[in-house]
Structures are given as C-alpha cells and as structure tokens.
Amino acid sequence: MEMTITANDLKVKGVTLIDSVVKENDGAVITVHGKEKYIILKIEDYNRMRELELEAAILQSKSDIAKGRFHTDGVDAHMNRISDV
Fold first, then answer.
1. pLDDT tens for residues 68-81?
2. Which of 1, 32, 52, 80 falls 20 to 30 Å from 61 in CA-CA distance?
3. Contact in structure between 50 and 43 (CB atoms under 8 Å)
C-alpha cells in the first residue's frame, strides 16, 4: 500500500517520517500544494524496477535484431539518419 506525505509534514518531521512510512508501506507519494510531486521507494524496490526496465530493453533489442531492425553503417550514417528526422 502507498501512503501520501505532505511536503509540510516532511519539512517538519524529516527522515524520521520517511522511515516510519516506508517501514509500514511499499512506498509513499509526497504532495506539494495538494498535487502529487515525488515518490519514495525502498532502495530494493527501486533497484528491482531498474532491473525490470533493463530486462525489457534487452528483450526489445533482441526483437529488433531478430526482425532486422538495425544498421551497421557507422556513426556518420547514423548521425545523418537521425538529423533528417
């Protein structure tokens, strides 16, 4: 479960508040003037999210290679290709 922390509560209570909220929840959202602005995650959860993003990128790259969606013509040709877009 995710909890909301106001910027004012964070200002007053600091890291102690973060520690207590994250200990009891999966994470927390920090709101500023009533709008969600930041997210707090346990470092383990953040690292796992990054691993999943990298795994997805690797799978996408493998799919692109299998479908022939790649170029081997060098940096200059690549720069020309992306400059024309």
1. 999 999 999 999 98
2. 80
3. no
- Domain 2-70 bears CATH identifier 3.40.1620.10: yes
| Model pTM score | 0.67
The position carrying tokens 């997805």 is 56
Q: What is the CA radius of gyration of the chain?
A: 21
Longest distance between any two alpha carbons in the chain, whole Å: 57
User: What tens digit of pLDDT does each residue of 24-38 get?
Assistant: 888 889 999 999 999
Could you give the count of Cα atoms lying within 13 Å of 20 in the half-sphere of its Cβ? 8
| All structural domains of the chain with their residue ranges | 2-70
